[in-house]
Amino acid sequence: MSIVKPFKGVRPPVEFVAEVASRPYDVLNSEEARKEAGDNDKSLYHIIRPEIDFEPGTDEHDPKVYAKAVENFKKFQDNGWLVQDCKPCYYVYAQTMGSHVQYGFVVAASVADYMAGRIKKHELTRKDKEEDRMKHVRATRANIEPVFFTFPDNPGLEEVLKKVTSVKPEYDFVAADGFGHKFWVIDDDALIDRITGLFASIPAMYIADGHHRSAAAALVGDEMARQNPHHTGKEEYNYFLAVCFPASHLKVMDYNRVVRDLNGLTDEAFLERIAVNFEVEKKKKMYKPSALHNFSLYLGGDWYSLTAKPGTYTDDPIGVLDVTISSNLILRDILGITDLRTDKRIDFVGGIRGLEELQRRVDSGEMKMALALYPVTMQQIIDIADSGNIMPPKTTWFEPKLRSGIVIHKLDD
């Protein structure tokens, strides 16, 4: 049973939302955030990337940086750039990327559900990144940025989405990256109760993106519960901020690889080794993988289709993944790359950058070859999370990313 509840969102007045809202903290570095914020005092980067308010090169993990986040969060509220709703609400958040639109419920999700495994994950987290976000949550006593959940399609919740989004949204703006954002407030008590009941019928939710933020938010909530001698289980810190999308709404993009060298092989020898486990077909133009177990290779100015031969992979939830097939049969066995997280010979390119970016990085001489993968499916992600397995690194790329600062959840109220 998935437990969610409404909450008193802290959010910008309509006239400020486009200035406040930002990309997530983890998709850009300090200098990129500094540049993107520019002279915009209302940019959320001053809260989620507060090192931009110090000299360039300031360590983002310095205690004074977390203190600055607290100071700026208070400043935003004092200046009226962020205002708290007077009653607990649910919200609907819609994102548009080209012709693709996805609608999600903004909720307070249960820490207990996360700790009990009813909120399921498919990626490993790094303790250093968890601890950074935990310090930020502890300092601000808020979930400044949401996490990105999905759940199996539910007809009742789909009906609610259609009803809520049939009227004019509270927010409606297009960000600098061209993605559209709309936002509705649900403050009707009967509809709030219906949403709570419908989510209670869902056996599990799944983290699509934001594993570190989920872990940090839940661990701080659990920590606060253990430190409170009068803990009742009803406190606001027992919940954290999430946007929950029906699985059919989401678009999973490919996550591709570029490699610096061929491990001492010539182009010809490399292709001969590839042909042992793959059907290799040279293409006359840029080629995009057409189905699961089909890959595209860019090498020596040419594009190739690679199709894994029958018997070269297993049918278990991990073994059947294209990232596993390519990691084992190409990166490990031929190129000697065994650790995707640490090996400096490999880099990763999100599918939103397109095949053109793969070709550019090879043609520039920076990289020797590029490998494009067919995107994983939402069902594969759910199957892996349900089986208790963890996906290999750099498997999923979701677009569009959630915009931060549209709504915030305080742990004290």
From TrEMBL:
<protein>
    <submittedName>
        <fullName>DUF1015 domain-containing protein</fullName>
    </submittedName>
</protein>
<dbReference type="InterPro" id="IPR008323">
    <property type="entry name" value="UCP033563"/>
</dbReference>
<dbReference type="Pfam" id="PF06245">
    <property type="entry name" value="DUF1015"/>
</dbReference>
